[in-house]
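Handout, section 4.2: multi-component inputs.
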Amino acid sequence: MGRITVDDLKKIKEKHQATFKLREGGNRAKVTVHMGTCGIAAGARAVMDALIDEMAAKEVKDVILTTSGCAGFCVKEPMATVEIVGEAPVKYCSLNADKMRKVLNEHVIGGNVVEEYALVVGSETSY
Amino acid sequence: MVNYRANLMICGGTGCIAMGGLDLKDALEQELKGKGLDNEYRVVITGCNGFCAEGPILTAYPEGIFYKKLTPDNVPFLVEEHFLKGRPVEKLMYKEPEKKHAVPAMKDIPFFNLQVLRALRNKGLIDPESIDEYIARDGYLGAAKALMEMTPEEICETMTESGLRGLGGAGFPTGRKWASCAGYPSDEKYILCNGDEGDPGAFMDRSIMEADPHVVLEGMIIGGKAIGARQGYIYVRAEYPLAVKRLRIAIKQAREYGLLGENILGSGYSLDIEPYLGAGAFVCGESTALMYSIEGRRGMPRLTPPRSTEAGLWGKPTVLNNVETLANVPQIILKGAEWFRVLGTEKSPGTKVFALTGSINNIGLIEVPMGMPLRKVIYDIGGGVPKGRKFKAVQLGGPSGGCIPESLLDTPVTFEDITETGAIVGSGGMVVMDDGNCMVSVSKFFLDFTADESCGKCTPCRIGTQVMLDKLIDITEGRGKEGDIETLVDMSYDIIDGSLCGLGQSAPNPVLTTIKYFEEEYRSHIEEGWCKAGVCKELVTFYIDEDCKGCGACKRVCPSDAIWGEKKIAHHIEQEKCVKCRSCFARCKFGNVRTGPASLREELIKKQAVEA
Ligand SMILES: Cc1cc2nc3c(=O)[nH]c(=O)nc-3n(C[C@H](O)[C@H](O)[C@H](O)COP(=O)(O)O)c2cc1C
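Output:
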């Protein structure tokens, strides 16, 4: 896409809001690995790699895998957020490759929150 | 004060707000008012329940009834039925599903439920390398509004009305700064972003640049239009490689979309932005030094006036704003000055981001409404100091700030109230210290930093900070003298009065505040030869008291085999072997390892010799 207009801005907003809310595109879930400096320093890359490999191995195709910045709770990094369509986001903390694989298999694929690694459910307040 | 009969809680979670939570709030308030119920029902925004998929969620207390997927259209019926006639509306209700798991919701965890995200609203939510995701969260709509619908005067007015103050340290009103610069006609002007972030312990600006780089660009576009700049620079330290990388990607994407460059969005306004990498000198965060640095000169401050808004970069009218300040701008333009003022206090509206660190359980990056008492920030959000330690002080504002003691923890976080204590809000570094911290050493640490970072241009700062540092070193190494405290205070005021820039003018703050609140600690160093926190090696003797249960933990951590004693019987430290590493002191959970003055060592050696 080249130069855009104000109308285009609104179109992009609508289109991507849909993916944000996972309403369109046939995706079932989204996993966000928090990769700010703190997350990376704590080992977020290994977590990300494990996730990519495990998703390939299990041939998971309907899950969006993405990265984002620091989740704010630096002392509990590496963190990841799992969002299943129609459910509240769950934040996992103090992850490593093994824990991430388990979260993928049990929560993202199996539908059961991995309580022992989960920190909190929901989204932050912003108004 | 009005006594409300009931509270209507609208979920303020990102999900519910995106689904129209704020429109719902407006509609509800209006309808209640129309029905004359606004004195009985209060509408409040709360933390997230975790029912995000059903949002916007409204919880009506005292009954605790959940309503789901509400729109402004539902409001008249809901108000009429439930709040006027007292008949809860079944078809709009949400039955809380049986909890499948035991994970707490955001609203039940103070770390999350006391925070409100504005500058950090996209944190952890969007892919920082995707401009489309930024746009999906209302990105560039503020810029579009400013460019297409507002005059420069209107932008400055909105900013002034919002009351936004510079969050980089000085708290100068942003609208006034912009209006001042707009008032100097020139065909060349500059809008700059200060991402230098030189305070030790601070990482707010880095995090914003890493997590949400486009918000910085958008803030600069709006500011640029307000003052009439055609070029902008982001001054960011080279030690922030991830921030630099993401800013560069963001700039490239914005240029491709025509959101930077010529004729942005067809508005006729043009602005380009480039990152400028600083080498990491603290003084280069000072506005005039920063501008010299961009010009390729040595980063040294100059005398003001003229102010930068009149003659800044290359001698042209220039506005410099901090990263966090700029991150607030787009939403203010989009939602209005009134919206911004909903949070915070009259003189310090809005929120402040803090980098919470030190001796505290929840280390992290937080954003709270201005006016929240320090105690709430430290204990409720921060979770207090780790077990077994005792709170001693909180350091705010880094090398330019000061230490606030326990007795002042009810101070609300506002520019005025914090300044009153002798500290400053500063850029937002918040370092919590416990009873294991020696306050003289803390002020030595900061003075060491400022003496090192002083650019050397003016004498009071160059020589003054060094002389003060030498005195502090003397005190911590047992060479303190009667009168040193008075000399330190005296010199502090001379340096504050005589220095050219903010670095020297604020460098003595850590010393002044620690003397103000912890003078007895300086005195015990000088007069008793005793650093009670056990930090200054020359001024401490470690020993184990008689209540020791002999658990052996201290013995195991001692690197020099200086501790002996049978299991379950009080242990002892062999003074001649002790290297004062402090490991046993930090290790003992029961407080049985104690500190005494340096002179105690000889006594103990004699006593041990007799006993042997
Ligand atoms: C020694 C010194 C260092 C400073 N470092 C920074 C810094 O790292 N970041 C920053 O935003 N402001 C810093 N400032 C404050 C700036 O001079 C200036 O007030 C600020 O960038 C203006 O932006 P604001 O009004 O948006 O806060 C520093 C000031 C001094 C005196």
